[in-house]
Amino acid sequence: MEQLEFIYKRHSVRSFEDRPVDRDHIREMIKAATYAPSGKNMQNWHFVVITDKTKIAAIVKIVEEVNARLAAYLADEAKRKAFRGMLPYQTVFKGAPALVLVYAGPYETIADQLLEAGIMPREEALEYKKPNPGIQNIAAAMENLQLAAASLGYGTCWMTGPTYAAEEISRYIGFAKDGYYLAAMTPLGVPASGKWSYPARKPLEEVLTIIE
Predict the structure, then answer these.
(1) Hey, CA dihedral for 133, 130, 144, 167, is it positive or negative?
(2) Which of 64, 96, 157, 176 holds its CA 20 to 30 A away from the CA of 116?
(3) How confident is the model over 158-177, as pLDDT tens digits?
(4) Where is the Nitroreductase domain (predicted)?
(5) Within a domain: residue 165?
(6) What is the reported pLDDT for 30?
(7) Torsion sign (Cα): 47, 52, 53, 59
(8) In 3-state terms, what secondary structure has residue 69?
(9) What region, left, alpha or beta, does residue 118 occupy, with left being phi > 0 and alpha being psi -120 to 50 degrees?
């Protein structure tokens, strides 16, 4: 449908032109992100945008170092090799003119209250934690951000892999907000190529159930 064409403009972009991202466009993209639905209207998100290439390169180095350190804990050689092999995909932001870090903040659920009360068995209380609405808020904001970016002619790539270096990255950039942690990130810039294709999607019949 033509009305939904803006959705299909979004692709996972991993190479970018050496052009800065317009500051006003950054603000518009983040504004669009903040209009995402948010449980209890908590808006438990915070966005850190880095446009300094030296800082982005330093974050790449941090991810590389943490990846090597964590790999040393994997006794299975195949798993260690696979984890190390993901590093190029987890550092694709190294060539981007901007990097957006998306932080998630506190969000209390009924599961938290049940666990605090300590009456219901822990295993049963944890069942109510599965929907994880707090992180759903962050995901909705990230999707808005990426759709807005695509509509403005920019490329992004949803990334969670590098968050194993969340503490080190946050410490390096000097960002701290009580209860917040790095949940996702995306490079941001003008795509280096206009030719993109989607990975095959599962047929609707496989993922859709309509109950009348």
Answers:
(1) positive
(2) 176
(3) 999 999 999 999 999 999 99
(4) 7-189
(5) yes
(6) 98
(7) negative
(8) helix
(9) left
* Mean pLDDT across the chain: 96
Q: Say whether pTM exceeds 0.85.
A: yes
User: Hey, what are 72's tokens?
Assistant: 């040393």
Structural domain contains residue 69: yes
Q: Tokens at residue 32, please?
A: 């669009």
- Structural domain of 162: 2-207
Which residues have CB under 8 Å from 93's CB, separation 6+?
A: 56, 59, 60, 99, 157, 159, 162, 185, 186, 187
CATH number at residue 27: 3.40.109.10
177 lies in some domain: yes
Task: Name the 3-class secondary structure at 129.
Answer: coil
Give the number of domains in the chain: 1
Tell me the per-residue pLDDT of 34-50, one tens digit each, with 9 for 90 and over. Answer: 999 999 999 999 999 99
